[in-house]
Amino acid sequence: MTKDKITDEYIKAVQKQFKHYHAADTRFISDLKDAVISYAAQQDSLDYEQLVSQFGDPQELVNDYFSEQSILLCQAPLVSLLKILTKVIIVF
């Protein structure tokens, strides 16, 4: 199997883990694809297991991504509150 087919297989396995795509998800997949292609280009030979070893099992990778997104979403209101408080403090 060629490197292109192996990388495509891995990316498709990751994409299957997403039920719906959002802009951030598309960015994540695009960045991952770039990283996988770059990694593959540096290897003399490549198999699917090397990609799993380097980037992680597709299901675990996406689960970690969603966990990270949940944490970021929880922090977003705090960041907004801090910005408001900073403006209030500066005004007074």
Task: Describe the secondary-structure layout.
Layout: H1 3-16, H2 23-42, H3 48-55, H4 58-91
Helix pairs in contact: 1-2, 1-4
Keywords:
mainly alpha, single chain, 92 residues
What does this 3D model show about the protein?
It is built from four helices and no strands. With 92 residues, it is mostly helical. The protein has one domain (3-91). Helix 1 (3-16) runs antiparallel to helix 2. The longest helix is centred in the last third of the chain and has 34 residues, at 58-91. The chain has helices at residues 3-16, 23-42, 48-55, 58-91.
Low-pLDDT windows of residues: none
| H/E element order | HHHH
- Please report the distance between the alpha carbons of the first and last residues: 67 Å
**What count of domains describes the coordinates?**
1
How many separate helices? 4
Overall structural class, as computed from helix and strand content, comes to mainly alpha
**Beta-strand percentage?**
under 5%
Helix proportion range:
over 70%
Total DSSP E strands? 0
Taking the sheet with the most strands, its summary is: none
| Cα shape | elongated
What is the residue-mean pLDDT, rounded to a whole number? 82
Provide a short characterization of the protein structure.
This protein has 92 residues and is mostly helical.
